[in-house]
Design goal:
- The chain is an alpha/beta fold.
- The protein has 5 domains: 149 residues, Rossmann fold, CATH 3.40.50; 187 residues, Rossmann fold; 106 residues, Winged helix-like DNA-binding domain superfamily/Winged helix DNA-binding domain (Arc Repressor Mutant, subunit A, Orthogonal Bundle), CATH 1.10.10; 82 residues, DNA polymerase, domain 1; 103 residues, Arc Repressor Mutant, subunit A.
- Helix content is 48%, strand content 9%.
- It has 34 helices and 14 strands.
- The strands form 5 sheets. Strands 5-10-9-6-8-7 form a 6-stranded parallel β-sheet, with helices on both faces. A two-stranded parallel ribbon has the order 1-2.
- Strand 7, helix 11 and strand 8 form a beta-alpha-beta unit.
- The longest helix is centred in the middle third of the chain and has 19 residues.
- It is globular.
- 34% of the residues are buried.
Length: 691
């Protein structure tokens, strides 16, 4: 390139984009496309247009007029629009300089966002006219790269390939426990910073966004189910920093180049490492701080596998293989950057990047030289025609139908890796280490078959010392699917045992003073959550599950006083963001039932109107009462239960050790009382005395 041409390009870059120099290989790529002719830029209105189904007839006519007159230099067209014959016929009459295909990984079935329409681009382009093509993608494995070139007929194309390494990004994977609470804590520790939280479902996006909002975080939801104007406004508010956090499905972020996104959180593990890389890549685009935190539980992987059922077999196989790679990344204790770059066909020379959770908190390493040798020997003996799971079966001496049919139980290597201390997870880690060391490769095109590299074959005869860290175990991580929306109420574990015991004693003491059973004051799940959250004011106490405002005012004062003294005496650091506000349950059925009770409607009629049984309605009322809300169904109880019976049931519950229905039936006598009678009067008792 002559200096004059370089000056012209630099001048245009400054004039139209405001940058003084190109980034990476941009200048070389642009010059390659332009081939010495600066014909890309222009200053008129209409220099860039899009052509799609959202335009009306008048707008389409204007676009076509600007194109034919030469005003338009850049036209955006979705692949779906290119399939329309009228568009192909129109474009055939235009002098097109070149086609630029963005998000080119969508062409490949192995790409994380495969779209069949992309597969048809080459014949359509040829129908329009043979012109140069530039294919662009930021997330393509070697396999996907080959697929793009082959499908587009670009085998002779010049390939520009930059490093996948984003050295400023910090990668971390956390167990998925009390996730909403943890996300709120994380965001509050980064006040005023811009971030994106990705969820797999629209429902979870809506719920999480609401939880962030009620906890004082400026957040908005974003997903394809929202109308275009709402999505556009949310994007604008995010770019203009009117809001700090976007909670989104993967629909958000395409085309949004906000340079100062400081954190990307994954509520759910993505379906592929390409998707993960693309989404985390929206952090720190200015080269500054970029934290990528992913919450992971193997339960999520199993859910994603279930979603694949019903799809074509080939698509299922590809999807499962992509998930295997995602699990390998999430559970690995090796340098996350090294694992990620290895997946994209790039070698990271250092064993430690110093900017991921595994490198910053390394685990003890174990020598695996001999075991790596066994892995390689097993791959060789099965003729490099099987995946990792089969290799592990052979090593552990497990006779499966496949092992038996191929007579691999007769191989010399069969059972040589049998060791009670070396589980399937251990051998998975060993195989992953062999891949990272370049001794094995996965033939992705053939669904992940393991094959020896030249270095691997050499290692069998000339081994050298290799060590690895054992992988993390996320099998017992819990998601918040069954928890309250705001993440309250842990299911055991995490509670301050000493404080919990003190709260139980206090509960008994207050109960004696009030002449009530302890469970009427506060139920055990509420006490347990208090010993986790440390509420020290009545307002904070109302955020505990099962504690409404009335219950807090009625019984709460001695409890928050005890907790406050305990926190002070034990010097407990109780950050305010540890106390997470719950989102009010807005179940339509519950609201309908409460309104019906206020109008004193017969509960049988309420059930019939909703197509329910009376037992279902009673169960909903029990749920409402247990959450701390007071309801008055005396009008209904009085109409079907004798007053003497009511008094007898109430007297029983006043002295009962628990509100167990079975114990009540046993004590009161199933011959004299029905289950429905006891349930209804129990609701009355708990509501009047406890709420």
């Amino acid at each position: 390139m002559i200096d004059t041409e370089r000056f012209v390009l630099a001048d245009k870059l400054k004039k139209y984009f405001g940058f003084s120099k190109f980034k990476g290989q941009q200048e070389e790529i642009i010059q390659n496309v332009l081939d010495g002719k600066d014909s890309f830029f222009g200053g008129e209105d209409g220099v860039a247009h899009f052509l799609n189904s959202s335009l009306n007839k008048a707008e389409i006519a204007q676009v076509k007029k600007d194109i034919t007159s030469g005003v338009t230099k850049l036209l955006y067209v979705a692949p779906e629009s290119l399939t329309k014959e009228e568009n192909v016929a129109f474009l055939r009459e235009i002098n097109i300089s070149f086609f630029a295909i963005d998000e080119a990984h969508c062409i490949s079935e192995w790409g994380h966002d495969f779209r069949p329409e992309y597969r048809r681009l080459r014949p359509i382009i040829e129908a329009i006219g043979s012109v140069p093509i530039i294919a662009l993608t930021a997330t393509a494995t070697p396999k996907v790269q080959q697929d793009i070139l082959k499908t587009l007929g670009m085998n002779e194309a010049k390939v520009f390939k930059s490093s996948f390494n984003r050295s400023n990004l910090y990668y971390e994977v956390r167990p998925k426990v009390n996730i909403v609470k943890e996300i709120i804590k994380y965001i509050k520790k980064h006040p005023g910073k811009s971030g994106i939280v990705y969820c797999l479902s629209r429902k979870k996006v809506e719920e999480l966004a609401e939880s962030l909002q009620v906890n004082g975080i400026k957040a908005m939801p974003y997903h394809a189910g929202l109308d275009a104007s709402t999505r556009a406004k949310t994007q604008d508010n995010f770019l203009m920093e009117e809001i700090d956090v976007i909670v989104a499905t993967i629909a958000f972020g395409m085309g949004i180049d906000k340079p100062d996104v400081r954190f990307v959180i994954h509520h759910d593990i993505p379906k592929s490492l390409e998707g993960y890389y693309q989404e985390t890549g929206r952090a720190g685009r200015d080269g500054g701080e970029g934290n990528c935190v992913t919450f992971y539980s193997y339960d999520d992987i199993q859910k994603l596998e279930k979603f694949m059922k019903g799809k074509p077999v080939a698509e299922q196989e590809i999807g499962k293989q992509l998930l295997v790679e995602t699990v390998a990344y999430a559970e690995s204790s090796a340098c996350r950057r090294k694992v990620l770059l290895n997946y994209f066909g790039e070698k990271h020379e250092s064993d430690s990047c110093g900017n991921c959770d595994n490198c910053n908190n390394p685990k003890t390493k174990v020598d695996v030289t001999d075991d790596i040798g066994l892995v390689l020997q097993a791959v060789a003996e099965v003729k490099e025609k099987f995946k990792d799971k089969h290799i592990i079966h052979v090593l552990q001496g497990t006779i499966t139908a496949t092992v038996k049919s191929y007579k691999h139980n007769d191989l010399e290597i069969f059972g040589k890796g049998l060791d009670d201390t070396k589980t399937e997870k251990y051998w998975n880690a060993a195989i992953r280490t062999a891949l990272l060391e370049g001794l094995l490769i996965k033939d992705i095109e053939n669904y992940g078959l393991l094959k020896l590299t030249a270095a691997g074959k050499k290692f069998i005869d000339q081994p050298y010392d290799i060590s690895m860290t054992l992988d993390h175990d996320y099998s017992n991580s819990e998601s918040d699917e069954d928890d309250d929306v705001a993440g309250g109420g842990q299911k055991g574990g995490g509670a301050d045992a000493e404080l919990y015991a003190m709260l139980k004693d206090l509960c008994k003491k207050v109960a004696r003073q009030k002449n009530l059973p302890p469970y009427v004051i506060f139920q055990e799940p509420s006490l347990e959550e208090m010993s986790i959250q440390y509420p020290v004011t009545l307002d904070e106490l109302t955020r505990i599950n099962g504690v409404g405002q009335g219950k807090a005012m009625k019984f709460g004062k001695p409890f928050v006083e005890l907790i406050a003294k305990y926190v002070e005496d034990n010097e407990i650091e109780r950050a305010q963001d540890m106390v997470v506000k719950s989102v009010v349950n807005k179940s339509g059925l519950k609201v309908h039932i409460i309104q019906s009770i206020d109008r004193k409607l017969d509960l049988v009629d309420v059930a019939e109107a909703k197509g329910l049984k009376i037992e279902d309605v009673v169960a909903e009322i029990e749920s409402i009462v247990h959450s701390g809300t007071r309801v008055n169904i005396n009008y209904y109880i009085d109409s079907i239960i004798d007053e003497d019976k009511q008094e007898e049931i109430v007297e029983y519950f006043k002295s009962a050790e628990s509100d167990s229905l079975e114990m009540a039936l046993d004590e009161l006598g199933a011959d004299d009382f029905t289950e429905e009678e006891i349930r209804l009067v129990r609701i009355k008792f708990l509501s009047e005395f406890g709420n």
